[in-house]
Design a protein that fits this description.
The chain is mainly β. It is built from 2 helices and 28 strands. The protein has a single domain, classed as Neuraminidase (6 Propeller). It is 9% helix and 34% strand. The strands form 7 sheets. Strands 2, 3, 4, 5 and 6 form a 5-stranded antiparallel β-sheet that branches. Strands 7-8-9-10-14 form a 5-stranded mixed β-sheet, with no helix packed on it. Strands 1-28-27-26 form a 4-stranded antiparallel β-sheet, with no helix packed on it. Strand 4 and strand 5 form a beta hairpin.
């Protein structure tokens, strides 16, 4: 009899533990996908199809990279000039662009993001600058944050902290800057492609070095495809940044690996993701277990953006493609340039896309026309180095199945 009672108690405990596990699992899902997005989450993401088309809404006489939008759907971009860098407002539906501010020289703006008060923040070299756009009296941006060398991607968390990736230095650093500005604080690093082991006179390392062809070259023979030169190294590992709607998960685009990293943060804003697995890197370097997805479709991933269902839109610039990663880690190539003359994909409509942005169900993307891989040579298309317009913003004509996640994250 006692044995039977014990068995029943064990069974009851097992049922209770299972119920708790299911409850915790449902709560975890709700922290990633907001309650209002449950219906949209079930909407499948499919390739845009052969009839997909883009409309160019802005052609820039100078280079551009980052993109954001205000609550009215107007797009904002910062140009790269020789004396100062213009900040321009562009109607997403097309129309006359308007100068709304500038960044003083020397300047090389990249990522853009609005805070809740409508102030615009732009990564600029080793700093982040800020301004409040004004078409009537365009202001000059002032320095908001320092100590962020190679600043590239940018995103706000629910507490008003600004997160910045170092992008161009290839060290994988990601900083947090408080709402009041000041020096950035390094929170973690995305694992670089190579570490500092066996370095002599600045040359060495252990890891790997993916290359883009072109500008890199290989010698193609029946017995191999060995490197013919040292060009085309792709070493950027911390690029675009985007928070989920609960603000506790930060996604990071990894250009070199063709990957998306998922970084978990506690309610106190502290890092919860595992670090320190490889002692040849700095102690705050993320373990490879934090890679959310890696896929050949994502090679060349630059900027990223999220929709209300948790889908991640990535601009795979070296492939002239837009790729979507679902919350279930399914990777879908939404659009890629068709093959044109000479078996090239450099005729557009995409010309090295860099920063996607979702305004409602409209997808828009900046295009810097870089001369790499599928966009080589960059003489094709409607913008280029030898044309009056060197870069552009284009928007997909077909509506997305799910609306973009409103920013900043609250």
């Amino acid at each position: 009899m006692l044995h039977g009672i014990t068995q029943r108690r064990v069974t009851l405990w097992a049922v209770a533990l299972l119920a708790v596990a299911v409850l915790l699992g449902s709560l975890l899902v709700r922290t990633v996908i907001s309650p209002g997005a449950q219906a949209e989450a079930a909407t499948p993401i499919r390739p845009a199809g052969p009839d997909a088309s883009f409309t160019t809404v802005f052609k820039s006489p100078v280079g551009i990279e980052g993109l954001t939008a205000d609550r009215r759907g107007n797009l904002y971009v910062a140009g790269r000039g020789d004396t100062s860098c213009p900040v321009t407002r562009v109607p997403a539906g097309g129309g006359t662009p308007v100068l709304v501010g500038s960044i003083p020289a020397p300047c090389g703006p990249a990522g853009l993001a609005f805070n809740a008060a409508g102030r615009l923040f732009v990564t600029n070299g080793d700093t982040v600058v800020a301004l409040t756009p004004d078409a009537a009296d365009p202001p000059t941006a002032t320095v908001f944050a320092t100590g962020v060398p190679g600043a590239n991607g940018v995103a706000f968390d629910p507490d008003g902290n600004l997160w910045v990736s170092d992008g161009t230095t290839a060290q994988g650093r990601v900083w947090r800057v408080g709402p009041g500005g000041g020096a950035g604080v390094e929170v973690f690093r995305v694992q670089p492609m190579a570490n500092d082991v066996n370095v002599t006179n600045g040359v060495g390392g252990v890891g790997r070095d993916p290359r883009s062809l072109p500008p890199g070259g290989i010698t193609i023979t029946p017995t191999g495809r060995a490197a013919a030169d040292t060009l085309g190294s792709q070493h950027l590992v911390a690029n675009g940044l985007a928070f989920t709607d609960d603000g506790h998960t930060l996604y990071v685009g990894d250009t070199a690996r063709g990957a998306i990293w998922r970084v978990q943060l506690g309610r106190d804003g502290k890092l919860r993701s595992l670090v320190g697995c490889d002692t040849t890197f700095t102690a705050d370097t993320l373990c490879l277990d934090n890679v959310f997805v890696a896929h050949p479709y994502l090679e060349g991933t630059d900027g990223i953006a999220l929709d209300r269902a948790g889908n991640i839109y990535a601009a795979a610039n070296e492939r002239n493609a837009i790729v979507v990663v679902t919350p279930e880690r399914r990777v879908v190539e939404l659009f890629r340039n068709p093959v044109g003359a000479g078996q090239l994909r450099n005729q557009g409509p995409l010309e090295f896309p860099t920063s996607p942005f979702l305004t409602g169900r409209k997808l828009c993307v900046t295009q810097s026309d870089g001369a790499r891989r599928d966009n080589f040579p960059n003489s094709g298309g409607e913008v280029g180095p030898n044309l009056p317009e060197r870069a552009k913003i284009s928007c997909l004509d077909q509506r997305l199945p799910v609306a973009g996640l409103p920013l900043p994250v609250r």
